[in-house]
Amino acid sequence: MITTETTPAARRAAIVTGGSRGIGRAVAEKLAADGLAVAVNYAGNTAAAEETVAAITAAGGTAIAVKADVADEHAVAALFDRAEAEFGGVDVVVNSAGRLALSPIADLDLGVLDAVHRTNIRGTFVVAQQAARRLRPGGSFVGFSTTIVGTQFPTYGAYAASKAAVEGLTLILARELRGRDVTVNTVAPGPTATELFLDGKTPEQVDALAKTPPLERLGTPGDIANVVAFLASPAGHWVNGQTLRANGGMA
Fold first, then answer.
1. 13-246: what CATH class?
2. Which of 79, 104, 187, 228 is most buried as measured by Cβ atoms within 10 A of its Cβ?
């Protein structure tokens, strides 16, 4: 008697930088709920990363926490090494790690400017570089920008400049990966109800910002995670080289 055995398809795996809190955590949890094994990257808050991993595993998913500074090329290479060792490869990379500083351009300390750009520009470049080298066919890289690049509110000069650089890389990298069957896109959220966004704002300021989009509410981390999950899925694989403004109808 002849028997035929089939080997299960390899599980898809993701790396989510800045995955311990806010939008990054929502993305990590959403990808895990969609069946991907997830490496939750974090910079320093071990407890938050472990909480994210615990939430994913409690829901039946697979996740590990891996510490790495996204602007350190050696640490990021080690992050990818760990994900490949644990999961057999990497199919999705979401770079949600970022830094925000608000100040009029005339008053901004240049050390703060350097710190913002180190994380947001160099960090994006370093993570994208490893993704370009290692993503498996059918994979996706998703970066993060901000709707502020379009709305250009005062005091966001350093942040908007750093995120405009991310948008500038997106289509170039997509074109450089021709023939690899790997997509590259960027998500640019509008005002989103995260701890970072709400910190330091009065209820009146939050209310005013919530009324800015035609949908008249703040976004949620889950709103953004759903967009990322679509871009990272086979259903979103025809979208490539784009910056998608997930902002409820703002500019």
1. alpha beta
2. 228
